[in-house]
Every structure is written in C-alpha cells, then in structure tokens.
C-alpha cells in the first residue's frame, strides 16, 4: 500500500485531500497542529485502519516512522485574517516547515508537492496570471508574511529539486471554496454566506471592483492529484478562470441565499490584489485538467454545507 503524509490535514483543503487519497487506496498519515484547522473535518476517517493522525507543529523537526511515497505540504494559515493574526507562525510554516518536509522527503525518497498560491503574484500587473509572471509583492506590507513565505517555499523546493534531486511538485492554488471552510475565517465566501445566514448586511471591501476567480474544491483536488502523479516539476496554476468582481459576487450570494439584507461598503484592506485570474493553459496541456463545476453549482453545495452548521458555529464571527 502506498503511504502519503498530508500536512495541514485538518484544514479545508487538507481534509478533502485525505478523503481523496483514502478513496484511491492509500495509507494516509495526517498531520496538523490545529492552529486554523478542526478535527471535525477528518473525524470520519479516524475509524479507518488506513488512516492515522499526528498532532504536530511542522515548524519543529518532523519524524514519521516507516516508508513514505508521497508528501503533500498544505500546512499554513491561508486566510488574510488568519495570517495577519499569526504573522510569525505563517512565515515559519512556509519557511522552516517546508524545509523540514523537504528534508523528510529527501530522507525517505518521497515525492513532495507543496501548496503555493496565486498570492505569489501579489497585486498582479499581468492579467491573467501565467506561471512565467514573477509577481508584484509588497515585501513589507501586512500580506507580505504570507506571500513571501510562499515565494521562499517555492525557492527552497526548487533548490532541493536541483541540488538534492528530490522529486518536487509546486501547485499555485487560486481562490478555492467549498464545504469545510471555516465560517469565521474571513475569506469572502464564508464571510458573505455567514452574514446572509445571520441576517446581516454583506460587507464588500473597497468599491467591490476588485476581481477574483473561484474554484470548487473537487476540481482543485483533481488538479492537485493529477499534478502529483505527473512528471512536471515547475509550478502549475490550478484554479477556475471564471472571473467576477466582488460587488457582482455579493449580488450573486444575495440571490442564492435569498437574504433580504443589502451590500454595505467597508475599507479595502492594504495590498488587496485588484484582479486575479489564472491562466490555466499549462494545466490543460500537461495534466489534461480543467475545472468542471460552475460557480452556481459550487456555491449551492457550499451554502448547503454552511446551513448544516450549528447556531454556535454561526455566532463565532470575526465581523
Ligand atoms: P486552512 O487554514 O483550512 O488549513 C490549513 C491547515 O494547516 C490547518 O488545519 C492548520 O491547523 C494547519 N497548520 C497551520 N500551521 C501549521 C503548523 N505549523 N503545523 C501543522 N499544521 C499547521 O487553509 P486551506 O484553505 O485548507 O489551505 C491549505 C493550504 O493551501 C495552505 O498552504 C494555503 O496556503 C494553500 N492555499 C489555499 C488556497 C485556498 O483558496 N483555499 C489558495 C491558495 C493556497
Ligand atoms: N472581501 C470582501 N468582504 C469580506 C471579505 C473579503 O469584500 O467580507 C474581499 C477582499 O477584500 C478581496 C476578496 O473579497 O478583495 C477576496 O478575499 P479573500 O479573503 O476571500 O481572498 P484573497 O484576498 O486572499 O484572494
């Protein structure tokens, strides 16, 4: 049986990746320190013999007994309000954590895939963003702790690839959504849906003309799976190119949820990227991948999930 280590396993993406690799017949070793994750996301897997869980902070030396075929390094705060609250841990998990996982991959002869992000493009001056674009990041701005940690992560990954011959993969993930996002993580989809469910107005930051392109989690997981199994070791964008302004998106959510609330405008956070859309030519060509789930279907499924959450979860709000 192939063995895979997944860091950040109790988080949104990590937990879906655990499900996928269990389904593919792998032995899954899940690792997390629960700083932004929740064991609820993986508790359904605890009864399985093919699944084990380690509570561990990956910025500390990582030891896993036995052989390892693959490592997916997904541990990192991912939401702006999370990484603004824990900036040093964010830098550490991208830098020291990645170093530890690459060292483990080298020792075990495992292939390692690291979760990079569209944020490495910063507030992009090239649109849509191709993998060749170097980005436009404010190193000392509040988001710099995340962006630069991820940029360092890519550099050290390529150094282990070139210098130590470790088999590496780099996925640049664009805004992904779906069930198991934390309702209070501050990202725009849980924020708007939580507000609709609590009967609050929807808070659009700035004038709402900034754009994002949202990818449903099942599509993202499929792209990551294909990239891991491919022999391509340079970064690949995985995201949904269907772009929308945040203002229009708020209107879509109002329609979907049937809320009678309105949109209100708040200050735009510093360095909030004005536009974001992946160029996915590479993923199409190399992985034969493109997203299949449209926004309407994906948002409906996500809203169904948020509706099942308890009143207590709903009240835990950052707004
Ligand atoms: P998440 O916050 O739901 O999950 C992150 C997980 O990592 C959490 O369970 C957290 O407890 C864990 N973690 C954080 N620091 C850790 C540490 N030092 N040791 C062990 N575990 C630690 O976020 P997510 O959306 O699932 O993101 C997962 C990964 O994907 C992150 O690396 C993120 O940068 C990347 N990513 C996500 C998106 C997205 O849209 N969801 C976009 C780009 C990149
Ligand atoms: N946003 C918003 N209202 C909110 C939360 C976010 O208008 O309550 C905006 C935010 O300013 C950004 C976009 O929605 O322009 C996406 O934000 P998110 O935090 O989801 O992701 P990121 O900025 O990292 O792409």
TrEMBL record:
It is found in: Golgi apparatus, Golgi stack membrane. Its cofactor is NAD(+). PANTHER family: UDP-GLUCURONIC ACID DECARBOXYLASE 1, UDP-GLUCURONIC ACID DECARBOXYLASE-RELATED. This is UDP-glucuronate decarboxylase. One of its GO terms (cellular component) is cytoplasm. GO terms for biological process: D-xylose metabolic process; UDP-D-xylose biosynthetic process. Gene3D superfamilies: NAD(P)-binding Rossmann-like Domain. It is a single-pass type II membrane protein. The keyword Lyase applies.
């Amino acid at each position: 049986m192939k063995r895979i280590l997944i860091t950040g396993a109790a988080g949104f993406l990590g937990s879906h990746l655990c499900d996928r690799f269990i389904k593919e017949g792998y032995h899954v070793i899940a690792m997390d320190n629960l700083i932004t994750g929740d064991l609820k996301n993986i508790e359904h897997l605890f009864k399985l013999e093919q699944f084990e869980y380690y509570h561990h902070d990956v910025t500390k030396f990582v030891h896993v007994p036995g052989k390892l075929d693959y490592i997916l390094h997904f541990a990192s705060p991912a939401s702006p309000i999370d990484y603004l609250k824990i900036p040093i841990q964010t830098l550490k998990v991208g830098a020291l954590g990645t170093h530890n996982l690459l060292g483990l991959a080298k020792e075990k002869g495992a292939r390692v895939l690291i979760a990079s992000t569209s944020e490495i493009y910063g507030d992009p001056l090239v649109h849509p963003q191709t993998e060749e674009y170097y980005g436009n990041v404010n190193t000392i701005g509040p988001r710099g702790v995340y962006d630069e940690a991820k940029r360092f992560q890519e550099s050290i990954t390529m150094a282990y690839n070139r210098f130590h011959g470790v088999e590496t993969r780099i996925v640049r993930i664009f805004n992904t959504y779906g069930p198991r996002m934390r309702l209070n993580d501050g990202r725009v989809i849980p924020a708007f849906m939580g507000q609709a469910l609590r009967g609050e107005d929807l808070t659009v930051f700035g004038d709402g003309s900034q754009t994002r392109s949202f990818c449903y989690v099942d599509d993202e997981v499929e792209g990551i799976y294909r990239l891991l199994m491919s022999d391509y070791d340079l970064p690949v964008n995985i995201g949904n190119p269907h772009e929308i302004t945040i203002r229009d998106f708020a209107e879509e959510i109002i329609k979907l949820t049937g809320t009678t609330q309105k949109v209100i405008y708040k200050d735009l956070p510093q360095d909030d990227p004005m536009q974001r859309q992946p160029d996915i030519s590479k993923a199409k060509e190399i992985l034969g991948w493109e997203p299949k789930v449209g926004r309407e279907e994906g948002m409906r499924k996500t809203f169904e999930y948020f509706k099942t959450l308890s009143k207590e979860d709903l009240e835990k709000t950052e707004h």
